[in-house]
Amino acid sequence: MKNMKSRYDKMFLGLLSGVFAPTVIFFAIYLVKYAGKYSLREIIAQIQLLDLGAKIIALTVFLANIVLFYVMYRLRWDKFCKGVLLATFLYAFLVVSMKF
Q: Mind giving me the DSSP string for the chain?
């Protein structure tokens, strides 16, 4: 476990995980709830039409990154957690800039 920690406890890997995890959550929700009913293009068009982009991003970032951060924090992967936190702040900046 120690060798695995030294290999993967990197801020860059946390940043990448924190950026891509919300995308994975979005597609997972799409596949579970809407895949048979609507195309991905229709879902994205509805998100744009209803101006829900910032809310969807905020929700998926919260769901994905809170779990990712908690698990890695419990494993004491501090550098990885810093990367996840940085990705969360970057998404927060994106959401705020979309709102104003």
A: -HHHHHHH--HHHHHHHHHHHHHHHHHHHIIIIITTTS-HHHHHHHHHHTT-HHHHHHHHHHHHHHHHHHHHHHTT-HHHHHHHHHHHHHHHHHHHHHH-
Question: Each residue's pLDDT tens digit in the chain (100 positions)?
Answer: 567 778 899 999 999 999 999 999 999 999 999 989 999 999 999 999 999 999 999 999 999 999 999 999 999 999 999 999 999 999 999 999 998 8
Task: Give the total number of structural domains in the chain.
Answer: 1
Residue from 38, 42, 58 nearest 50 by CA: 42
* Structural domain containing residue 11: 2-99
Is the pTM above the cut of 0.70?
A: yes
> Which residue do the tokens 């419990």 mark?
74
